[in-house]
Amino acid sequence: MAGQGRAGATAPPGERGDSPLKLISATTTTFKSAGPVARLRAFRARLRYTLDRPLTPYYLILGAALLLVVLGLVMVFSSSQILALGQHRSALFYFLKQLVAVLLGTALLVTLAWVPLAVLRVIVYPLMFGVIGALALVAVPGIGVEVGGNRNWLDFGFFQVQPSEFAKLALVLWGADLLARKQKTGMLDQWKHLLIPLVPGALLLLMLIMLGGDMGTAMILVAMLFGLLWMVGAPMRLFVATLGVAVVACTALVVTVPHRAERLSCIGVTKLDPNGACFQALHGVYSFALGGPFGSGLGAGVEKWGQLPEAHTDFIFAATGEELGLVGTLSVIGLFAALGYAGIRVAIGAKDPFVRYAAGAATTWIMAQAMVNLGSALGLLPIAGVPLPLFSYGGSAMLSAMCAVGVLLCFARSTPGAQAALAARTTNSRLRTRLARVLPRRRTTARPASRPARRER
What we know:
The structure is a single chain. This protein is mostly helical. It has helices spanning 2-10, 13-16, 20-24, 28-33, 36-51, 56-86, 93-114, 117-122, 124-138, 163-184, 191-195, 198-211, 215-232, 236-256, 258-264, 279-291, 316-349, 353-377, 395-414, 416-438, and strands at 144-147, 150-155, 160-161. Strand 2 (150-155) and strand 3 form a beta hairpin. The radius of gyration is 28 Å and the shape is globular. Peptidoglycan polymerase that is essential for cell division.
């Protein structure tokens, strides 16, 4: 037995069958004295252990979303103050409006993150019908407001609402609830039940949105529809056929409208056209070139002085590249990557079909919109006019994106592993509280010296 103990002590860690946790629990001195390969293995083991914890997706979603919102507020102020001063307004005008939207969005996020799943499924159809009614009002002349060539706003005097942004949230919840109910009854094996009424409902939203000319939002809804069909396990031939129809429709919409075809021709532009075409796309590329590795400094960008249109909305990523450089842009991309990874983890780990489909659709929404915006700013995709989620200026876009984050947080808390971890954490905290009331507290200071005994007379 003694020989076996000595052999086990001298054997390498991998041969002893130690778990990664035992390898990580070495002292600091042992870790510093280890070689680079051992340090890398220990780091990978710790990272794998951290990512595999049940509550990691919850904290990743919350942390990445909050960091994107805070950094977005900073960049909205930096990139919009020149525009506000040029309009004879306060330099804080756009920043304060965005701050109000963030505060309202935070209230919605907290509410949706803590409501039971049953409540989310109750509001599905009222939300869907409300969005359809609002989109129909936008198409009515005199009620809908046209901004930037698109009629997709409702003006209530002291604020404006873009119903098409909330159509994404409606499609996420309605589509997930519909597919989950059909899966429960075993109806998804037939292609007609797979497509109807999911595809007609999505087409109704797309038609109402395209009446206002907002093709960028329509592209995001198409991506979400494909995401739902992919997660539900649609046959490949059906998926390819639907994708082919969407490509033909998008091509027709681009070719028939001159300014959309012009945007398509601006992909990869390197010099300015004599007629002034591709001005915005070219100056977006100039912004990244001026930023360099570390940027020109917060507030020191020059493109926002009139050369880069929409520097605080659609092209805020280009303004970030100029002022914060490659480091800032990679940080933003890394936060979106963390958010997407956590959303996929939630969708994969969910047992409830509604949670799985809704989490996948919401993640598709955020990631597809982020990719379209980043590709437009980098000159890799045509300018679609969609904001960067949780980052760009825009009240309706901020509210809808924070609602999506709140829904993802609700789903992350509802997974079996997360519920067990939260229950264990609550039990431990209660036990500690009760023990603290019963057990004496540990002394943190030295006891006072005892007085000498009084001598008896």
